[in-house]
Specification:
single chain; alpha/beta; Nucleotidyltransferase, domain 5; 6-stranded mixed beta sheet; 41% helix; globular; binds 5'-O-[(R)-(carboxyoxy)(hydroxy)phosphoryl]adenosine; binds zinc ion
Length: 337
Amino acid sequence: MKILGIESSCDECAASVVEDGRRILSNIVLSQVDFHKPWYGVVPEIASRKHIEWIRPVVQDALAEAVVGADELDAIAVTFRPGLIGSLLVGLSFAKGLAWALGKPLVGVDHILAHLYAPHLEQDISYPYLGVLVSGGHTIIARVERSDSIEVLGTTIDDACGEAFDKVAKFYEIGFPGGVAIDKLARTGDARAFQFPKPSLHKGDARYDVSYSGLKTAVIHQSAQFWNGKSEKSLPNIAASFQKAAIDILVDRALAAARDTGLHRIVAGGGVAANSYLRERMSAEKGLEVIFPSLKLCTDNAAMVAGIGYHAFVAGRFSSFSLNAEARVPMFKRAYP
Ligand code: KG4
Ligand code: ZN
């Protein structure tokens, strides 16, 4: 079964054809990084305009690379939430038009669940497991029961982990996307150079929650000290110390959740899952099976959309053409979605 996936929730315009939820026949990701770089962040208006320009050629490229005709597709899967509303609407409208014209089913896909599905494209992973989803918009530690069913154990109470990387990188003009730039710079710095505060573990229901706004503020307030005794090592040291603090916060919570739930398999996903220190630290944990997607499947892509879309298709969960884009997904009693 061949599913076309379309992803346009943020600043990557992506399309992919995946066979049977596993075999990637094509995976086209056109990044808008160069257009957002001057602002050190994604500008929503620019993002949706670029998606409008790019969506058609990107889908055409995905079909051409897969050597699959549009009429051979079994369904069109598309991200409809959460994300930037204008960007989501471009992909969703295009997918609806295509599905309508071809007479194929439409499958609306949740971006969070798609990120968690990404490593399933590369290996067999059995459920349940502890999912750690860390991206620019989300930080979620969850018990993952199936591709469409998770129980959120912990989340951020303020900024997302990737957002903290992006904001710190913006303040110190390290680069964009911030996570990639900080990860690279941190390799030449000393992670013990600065001591940044870490929020302490809460009790009760919120014990797996994380918080990044305090760390972000502390790193930014470090600037006086940073500029005073500035040397060529100052910036790499800030990057390395911040990265260590940010990732340690996440790993502490994830390990506590793994221990308490008895889930010994941890599966990571999302852009921050590309972080080299996170990958190194988690992989060194004894007694745990830790699975990371390859770098290309950590950040936004449409293969994960087509992959998870296959399972919805097989289960007969199609979407109607009145499906609308949703910027946010409210979490009720930690159930998701
Ligand atoms: O999953 P993604 O592509 O988009 C969202 O759904 O948000 O994640 C993008 C985020 C950005 O905040 C980016 O700075 C971060 O992932 N990121 C990283 C790394 N690569 C991307 N953060 C830390 N280390 C990295 N190597
Ligand atoms: Zn994402």
